[in-house]
């Protein structure tokens, strides 16, 4: 680990650091519905509907302390907050206020949402690209750009079971979303070689560039853990730039925290022998990163503090199909279809949780057999992807647009998700020569990511030393 000048870091950090394009940016949330509330009348009077004008008395509401109003606004869900910003200039400016964002980080409830991107599948990787996307100008004419593409994501709120569309046209061409954490999306360059990375807050449009990796790679597995005071990032596998060479040999990690310690892809580690990682994201849980290993199935675990890798045997590894790892409330869960064709065991979709010992699994859920028969018919052997966020797990069927199944772990309930608003436009976004799909990540929407100020200061410090 290395350290940089800690005295030059201001605490609290500038929470709104790196915000770009905000004055003209507002997420495209569904318009809200005005609700008229009817209160019960006093016993001796006839029923009376209280209108907004009769109890929004300016003589009363104008006396409320601004601190109290700010505290109320900090509790608003994100769609309501962005609508509230259109009320007045002061509420609009809250996004630039360090005091409000600090309050927001302290009191705002954490929401476990999902973010989905248009998945375009190349021949050799599950990382999806945005190179060929087109956008339309105000006149409806299709245009291209060598530097910027008009990208959008689809947010899913599992509490209200609603979709939202959010555009962010500031990501450069040739970058693809690889993983998420702490309300930030990590974008990784597509071209083989040294990887460039961005940390991006889709709600604010802010982009923070990370230092490039030290080793050339093709499509590595990427893991990210972001807290208000630290960033841990790891890239593993695909460390030969030729698809015909031996790969999956090493991993390299990036770390920075508020104590002033950092490691800029200097900490490298060797992967276990005979690893077969599929390109994609890792799952972080309790200080460790996990990813699937194939042929045969097992789970690779990486401990950040000890910089060590090891294998964990998967349950029923010879009978699994489409195994996926998800994180749910700091627990690692393996989701997979089970097929024992030669034994008297019904086909099913099951979930196991990794026990505290770190090597044993316990089954926690099976999809009801009637629902699985319906799911299997729609899936048709194509496979599926899973992503977990909080108490929710979403299962998306590959190659089938708008077919997602959500499981609520606390309520033990299964529901089919409503159609994504991309329906009808997805094929246009993807292109006729690529397979279309929505690929999702766990997402905690946030208005502030103070750790990005640390990353920027590290980059400034490195440039000054150079």
What does this entry look like structurally?
There is one protein chain. By secondary structure, the chain is of the alpha+beta class. It has a domain at 113-315. The chain has helices at residues 52-55, 58-61, 66-74, 78-84, 89-92, 98-107, 369-379, 426-430, 451-465, and strands at 2-3, 113-120, 135-136, 142-143, 151-157, 162-168, 175-181, 184-189, 197-201, 206-210, 221-227, 230-236, 250-257, 261-270, 283-285, 288-293, 298-303, 308-313, 320-328, 331-338, 348-354, 361-366, 384-389, 392-397, 404-408, 413-416, 436-443. The strands form 7 sheets. A 5-stranded antiparallel β-sheet has the order 1-14-13-12-11, with helices on one face. Strands 6-5-2-27 form a 4-stranded antiparallel β-sheet. It is globular and about 75 Å long. Residues 3-26, 30-50, 121-150 and 426-435 have low confidence and may be disordered.
Keywords, please?
single chain; 466 residues; alpha+beta; 4-stranded antiparallel beta sheet; 15% helix; disordered N terminus
What is the total tally of β strands? 27
* Gyration radius, in Å: 24 Å
Biggest sheet descriptor: 5 strands, antiparallel
Helix content range of the residues, please? Answer: 10-25%
Distance between the termini: 19 Å
Indicate the proportion of strand residues: 25-35%
List unreliable stretches of 5+ residues.
3-26, 30-50, 121-150, 426-435
Output the strand order for the largest sheet: 1-14-13-12-11
Morphology: globular
């Amino acid at each position: 680990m290395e350290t940089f000048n800690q005295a030059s870091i201001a605490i609290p950090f500038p929470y709104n650091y790196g915000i770009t394009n905000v004055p003209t940016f507002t997420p495209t949330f569904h318009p809200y519905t005005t609700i008229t509330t009817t209160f019960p009348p006093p016993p001796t009077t006839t029923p009376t509907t209280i209108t907004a004008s009769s109890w929004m008395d300016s003589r009363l509401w104008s006396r409320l302390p601004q601190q109290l109003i700010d505290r109320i606004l900090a509790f608003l869900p994100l769609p309501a907050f962005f609508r509230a910003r259109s009320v007045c200039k002061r509420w609009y400016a809250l996004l630039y206020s360090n005091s409000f964002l600090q309050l927001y980080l302290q009191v705002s409830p954490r929401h476990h949402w999902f973010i989905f991107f248009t998945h375009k599948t190349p021949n050799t990787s599950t990382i999806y690209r945005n190179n060929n996307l087109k956008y339309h100008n105000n006149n409806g004419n299709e245009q291209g750009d060598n530097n910027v593409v008009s990208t959008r994501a689809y947010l899913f709120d599992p509490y209200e079971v609603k979709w939202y569309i959010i555009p962010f046209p500031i990501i450069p061409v040739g970058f693809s979303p690889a993983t998420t954490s702490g309300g930030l999306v990590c974008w990784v360059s597509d071209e083989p070689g040294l990887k460039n990375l961005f940390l991006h807050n889709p709600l604010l449009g802010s982009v923070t560039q990370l230092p490039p990796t030290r080793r050339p790679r093709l499509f590595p597995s990427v893991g990210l853990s972001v807290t208000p005071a630290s960033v841990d990032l790891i890239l593993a596998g695909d460390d030969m730039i030729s698809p015909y060479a031996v790969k999956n040999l090493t991993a390299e990690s990036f770390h920075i925290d508020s104590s002033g310690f950092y490691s800029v892809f200097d900490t490298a580690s060797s992967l276990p022998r005979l690893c077969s990682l599929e390109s994609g994201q890792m799952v972080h849980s309790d200080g460790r990163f996990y990813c699937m290993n194939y042929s045969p199935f097992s789970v690779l675990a990486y401990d950040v503090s000890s910089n060590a890798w090891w294998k964990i045997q998967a349950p029923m590894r010879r009978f699994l199909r489409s195994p996926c790892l998800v994180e749910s409330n700091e627990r690692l869960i393996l989701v997979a279809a089970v097929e024992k064709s030669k034994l008297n065991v019904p086909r099913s979709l099951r979930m196991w949780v990794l026990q505290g010992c770190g090597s044993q699994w316990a089954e926690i859920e099976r999809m009801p057999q009637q629902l699985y028969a319906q799911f299997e018919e729609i899936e048709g052997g194509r496979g599926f992807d899973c992503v977990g966020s909080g108490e929710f797990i979403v299962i998306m069927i590959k190659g089938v647009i708008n077919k997602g199944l959500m499981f609520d772990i606390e309520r033990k309930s299964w529901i089919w998700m409503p159609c994504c608003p991309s329906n009808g436009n997805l094929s246009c976004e993807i292109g006729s020569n690529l397979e279309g799909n929505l690929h999702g990540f766990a997402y905690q929407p946030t208005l502030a990511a103070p750790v990005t100020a640390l990353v920027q200061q590290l980059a400034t410090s490195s440039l000054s030393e150079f």
